[in-house]
Each structure stands twice: as structure tokens, then as C-alpha cells.
Amino acid sequence: MTDTHPTDTHVTETPHRPVVVLTHRVHPPILEMLADSCEVIANQSDGSLPASELRRRAAGADALMAFMPDRITAEFLDACPRLQVVAGALKGHDNIDVNACTERGIWLTRVEDLLTEPTAELAVGLLIGLARNITAGDRAVRAGLAGWRPTLYGSTLVGSTIGLVGAGRLGRAVARLLSGFDANLLYCDPEPLSSAGDHGLQMEHVELGELLTRSDAVAVCAPLDANTLHLLGRAQLESMRPGSLLVNVGRGSVVDEVAVAELLRSGHLGGFASDVFEFEDLSRPDRPEGVPEELLAIQDRTLFTPHLGSAVASARLRIEEHAAEAILQVLTGEVPDGAVNRPLRTHSPGPTPAL
């Protein structure tokens, strides 16, 4: 295994072994798992590699393990003539050009279920944090607690109406957790659930407009595509019930963050929490450079986390294992688990790893 640093200028490759490039830090067992049969070019630093350095490393790669901060374009793939698989240690893959992979005979894989439960858990935590003014309470205690005072009264999830924008695996997982709060659950999704629901889960299917006007709190669990970009724009946010709460654990760009800031300042929105942000969505050429300053300046009614949805140690390890297994499957001529596409052609078989 070759553990390199962004400033390294030379990598020694073992002859006759497939080259696997890892774009971001992984757990040590993953390095060992791949190093048994491959030459591993790792990035165990805390940050992303400069684009030029990643391209240099990937130029001779047979496989690439990619993460959310990576942008895998057709131009990038054209500079990687040996590449057979891009294994995403992620679920949403809007940062990777699927068609370009398919046309170039490159498999694209993703992890479907392993991120769902940890992200759903965080969504409920963010809802509780907003409803019960937890961050404001923490600051009050640290500033000097005088004892109980009739302040920071919030709301409760118990018996409330909560709307879910998106009822895929994530939306349904959030709903299952919220069912323990005896909440009235609404959802909007292009594909309504069957009449049996999800293992008996009671959810009412409504259009987005009705969901927003009826809900005390709204949780965004939708992926990003052409139909969901700013799905919750200014007009939709203005239609929400006054004082209602909004939580986003789907994709940042599903929500118009500038409009959120304005409606928080006006008092129309009661609070906003998010684990995902517009600037992270690399598929958008017009994405902002960061979280809007006007949104960051509103502290009392916001709660932000740095993409912690799947940041559970055991879950992250399993996600990386899934991506590594997909790489090894492709390198041995198998159809990989979690395949997003079917390449139009395949590469000539390379050296077979000694598994």
C-alpha cells in the first residue's frame, strides 16, 4: 500500500497489481482489505486533494473510491483510461456523471441502505433540538445560570403534524422513528406508498402545498435532481404555517437557503436546522461558495451540523467496506453490488487480484 500526501510527486506501483485510488480517509481495515490484492494509493489526510493531484493519481488507476466532496466528470474520466469502477462511499451520487461512466465502460456503485438509519436518527435529533431550544439553552447555561426562569418555551413533537418531503428509504426511516411520538405524519412523493404502507406505518399522502400548510414541522428527505432543485423556494416557504420548523437532511439545494434566512428574520419560520448545504452540491455549476452569511448570523432559531448524517463509526466502516467490496468484485469480473449503471462496454480484463 502507498500512503501518500498531497505534496507527494511520485508513487511506486507494484507490477501486475490493480491500482486503487482512495480520494479520502478510510478506516485502516479498508486499507488492509484492498492492499491484499491491489496497489492502494490512499489519502489519509483530513481534507480533499487538490483537483490536479487527484487527477494525477487517478490517471493510472483501475479503480477509484469516491466520496461526496469529489466531482467526477466526463473530462475527469477521459484522463483515466484504465478505470473500471468508481465505487461511491455515498448514497446520493449527483456529484458523479453516471452517463459518462456508462459510455466509457466504467461501473458506478453506491451504498443504498447503510446511511439511512443514522441519517434518520440525526433528523429526529435536529427536530428535537429546534423544538426544545437546546442550543439556546446550552448557551444560556454557559453564560451563567440563575436558576429556572420562564424562558425558552418551545414546542413538542408529541402529537404534532410533521410533513416529510420524500418518502424513499430515508423518509420512511424518519417516519418510523417519529411514529413513537404519536405524530400525525404527512408525506409528499412522486411515488405514493402502497396502501399497506411501510410495515404498517401510518402516513397520509398529500401534495406538497397541502403538506406545507398543515405541518408544524417539515423534514426534507429528498434527493437532488432537476425536479427537486429549490423545491422549497420562497413561495413554498412562505406558504408554510407561521412559526413552523424546517429540517433538511436530504440535499442542500432542495431548499433555498437565502429565502430561509429572510423568512427566519421576518419571524414567519420558527426555526431551521440542516445537515446539508447548497454549496456542497457539486453538480450545480451555480452553487454558492458557502453557507449564506445572513443564515449563519441567525443563531437563536437555527441548528447546523457538518454533514453528520452517516457519521457513526460503525456505519462509516461498513459503508467503506461496501465500496471496497464493489471494487474487488469488478476487478475479478463480477457484477458489483450497488451498481447504479450497466456499462455499454467493458474493459479488457486486467490482472486478477489474488483474493
Automatic annotation (TrEMBL):
Coiled coil: none annotated. Residues 20-341 form the D-isomer specific 2-hydroxyacid dehydrogenase catalytic domain. InterPro entries: D-isomer_2-hydroxyacid_DH, D-isomer_2_OHA_DH_cat_dom, D-isomer_DH_CS, D-isomer_DH_NAD-bd, NAD(P)-bd_dom_sf. Residues 124-309 form the D-isomer specific 2-hydroxyacid dehydrogenase NAD-binding domain. The keyword Amino-acid biosynthesis does not apply. CDD domains: PTDH. Keywords: Oxidoreductase. Belongs to the D-isomer specific 2-hydroxyacid dehydrogenase family. This is Glyoxylate reductase.
